[in-house]
């Protein structure tokens, strides 16, 4: 792909500029000529759904996804129903904000029984699908790095995500490939191929050595060891031609000026994605 | 298994008492009636191989393994040969110290090309096998948690370890199952079954939430989310009846009195392993 084609896919995942609210992030992207944005629910909640929608529409920006639904496992049936209800709200918000993709971070288990928690994830998705479909929203299962299996998601590999997604039509459930979470997987390229026509999101950042923090330790593209370009090409070969989100959760980046960060993102994206 | 049978398998992996040298660790185990010990090379180096051997023999303790060989990938052929030479020394030390098992931490890649580094691991093991066999030493491939793929080992799953080990006779190359590294793996029980007759080591600790440190953050059995007893039973069903090493890399434990730590290990081992 030529550089122009690639730049047209660039999306700012809003968590990368956690220091900014929705208005600032949108203004920053417009200034930096970044055409897409992925919106986080806690940022939407700060100013309300309608105001967020107004800002996004006025800017002309396209919304690549809403982050995030999921968190399905919980100790009691009542809590699991509450989680599901929250996912329904997330679907409504996604539709209202003008994106057809809700990213799912599936959740950790409430206890030591990881198999049952994985079953609760599958059950939760199964219950959510008809509701999401009625809003024209696809569910994107994002496997998280295994180091988050105890506190963020029991779905740790693209293989697991594919196995769940394959139960549904590609327009209902897909997978999200985030290089930070999957780069180490010996089955990576095989599972990307298996996900053909089901990839609904592609996220980039980097794995720096040593990782500065378990949660807020993702690196800028080019600063780490991930073969980002190789993975991007594999995802493209598997039929994904949608937006590419830069999603960097990193305290040092949050402490910088947002405009500088966007400038660097564009440079690194061109060089390394 | 009855408790007595289990206690007879208990082994102190020496890194758990990093505050102690070989003599102190051996004395501590004798006092605590822990019958096995796994020895680390940097501790042996502090006092020399012959002195370490003398201490171990005088104590009557059994040596479950030597930690560690591996670290095969390197940027140049010359460096890779140096790594191999170091592995040959590790094999000699294992034989001299009276254990038939050398644990392999296979090493990170020197660059972004993880596939080539994985090939170098397989090549290194292949070259080491005849030498190790001539000393009666088995190579135990220990898959490390994927969060160490960039700085400790490109072998991240039991599946990968099995695929390499299966190229050899079970008396030459086996796998080491460490619950901290593999608990999250959706293929865990299937891969333990696949490893039947090839498991040459079993390590326990726990995954606490949140993990206090990427490297020195392992927990005491019972303090975390790992189904240790379930994994122990699976390993046993797969034919492993050897020593069970308690391997906890944790600064807070290193800051405690070694004797107290051994006392707690015995309690937790009885309750949770």
From TrEMBL, chains A, B:
SUPFAM superfamilies noted in UniProt: Xylose isomerase-like
InterPro entries (alphabetical): IolE/XylAMocC-like, Xyl_isomerase-like_sf, Xyl_isomerase-like_TIM-brl
Entry GO MF terms: isomerase activity
Keyword vocabulary terms for this entry: Isomerase
Domain Xylose isomerase-like TIM barrel: 41-252
Superkingdom of source: Bacteria
Protein name per UniProt: Sugar phosphate isomerase/epimerase
């Amino acid at each position: 792909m030529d550089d122009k084609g690639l730049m047209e896919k660039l999306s700012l995942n809003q968590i990368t500029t956690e220091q900014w609210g929705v208005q600032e992030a949108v203004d920053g992207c417009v200034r930096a000529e970044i055409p897409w944005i992925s919106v986080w629910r806690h940022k939407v909640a700060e100013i309300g759904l309608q105001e967020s929608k107004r800002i996004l529409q006025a800017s002309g920006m396209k919304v690549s996804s809403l982050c995030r639904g999921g968190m399905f496992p919980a100790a009691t049936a009542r809590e699991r129903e509450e989680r599901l209800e929250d996912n329904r709200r997330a679907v409504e918000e996604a539709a209202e904000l003008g994106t057809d993709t809700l990213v799912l971070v599936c959740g950790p288990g409430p206890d030591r029984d990881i198999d049952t928690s994985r079953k609760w994830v599958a059950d939760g998705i199964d219950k959510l699908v008809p509701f999401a479909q009625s809003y024209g929203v696809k569910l994107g299962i994002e496997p998280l790095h295994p180091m988050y299996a105890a506190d963020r998601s029991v779905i740790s590999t693209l293989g697991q995500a594919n196995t769940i997604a394959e139960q549904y039509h590609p327009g209902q459930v897909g997978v999200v490939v985030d290089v930070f979470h999957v780069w180490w997987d010996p089955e990576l390229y095989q599972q990307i191929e298996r996900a053909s026509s089901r990839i609904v999101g592609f996220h980039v950042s980097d794995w720096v050595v040593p990782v500065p923090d378990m949660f807020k330790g993702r690196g800028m593209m080019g600063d780490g060891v991930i073969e980002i370009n190789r993975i991007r090409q594999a995802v493209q070969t598997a039929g994904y031609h949608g937006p590419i989100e830069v999603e960097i959760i990193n305290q040092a980046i949050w402490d910088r000026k947002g405009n500088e960060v966007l400038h660097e993102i564009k440079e690194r994206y061109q060089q390394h994605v």
